[in-house]
Amino acid sequence: MKKFIILLLSIFLAMSLAACGNKTDSRDSSGKTEIKDAKELLTTVWNSYEEDEKFAIAGGDMTEENMTEDAPGTFGITDADELDRMLGFPAADAEKIDNAASIMHMMNANTFTCGAYHLKNADDVKSVAADLKENVMGRQWMCGFPDKLVVISLDDYLVSVFGNEELVNTFKDKLTQTYENAKVISEDGIV
């Protein structure tokens, strides 16, 4: 009987550890999630998608070295107006970030656009999140309207995603399931 209970407990422990295996949320001693850069953050989330959940994407900016197909890509931060035009990130806050990455729907950016931004100072997360939300919500849309905007914080990273509600919700769920520290700051319909 003892052997049976030990075996049962061993199986239970193994299953518990396996269930935790999908989390990539490793933290340093301060409790901060260890992420190399914004591109790694988006790549980790994108790789958590099942094949039937994925859709045609492009990543990065329009430069040859950063543009990617079917994967997230690095987005240059030197052109604040391009950050605003392509990702909805407020140009006035561009000096507060030191790297960025993006995922966009291959056919229509209003269907799905996601940007991840590493802030130089974690104290700026709330104010930049508010500016980002105001900037996206105040846009004049062409070629269709996105349904929803979600802004998420992850330590000193901000992630914004807007577009088709189902695609936005799936991304939000994948991000918050992948990273325990992820917190939804705002979730709004775009009218």
Automatic annotation (TrEMBL):
Signal sequence coordinates: 1-19
Keyword presence, Signal: yes
Entry keyword set: Signal
PROSITE patterns assigned: PROKAR_LIPOPROTEIN
Protein name: Bacteriocin transport accessory protein
Species, as recorded: Roseburia intestinalis L1-82
